[in-house]
Amino acid sequence: MNTKNNWEEVYVLTEHWKSDLLFYKDDLLFLHHLIDKYFIWITKPENLVMVKEIKVDLFDLGIKCGDLLEKVGKHIIQLGYLVENQKREDSGIFTMEHQHLENEITTFVKTFRLNRKEVFAITEYIMDSEAFYNIMEPKQS
């Protein structure tokens, strides 16, 4: 396989990263919406603390996602230069940057998945505990 085909494979992979990150960006918006939808029903202080913590985590993930999207965009441009001039001396540096970016994306995806599970677990817990709390509370006439 020649160098051009190798760079084309790297390009396809990088475009997949971009597509995945755009999906995660949209999914983060959904998770924020999900939390905000149930936030108004929270009455227990400990549940408020849990929700605030997960909101901070999601906000941080959103920043990281945006940062990665920007890096991937620049990476694609650099890749275009390499395809145009395959004898460039900085192809080794590009390969190292590619591996580093792949590691960053892998870490982001793992963190995202954990946070997503946590959002659903917290949402379920809050719905159950808040409903139970409101049922057990004496009604005042």
Automatic annotation (TrEMBL):
Q: Which domain of life is it from?
A: Bacteria
Q: What's the name of the protein?
A: Uncharacterized protein
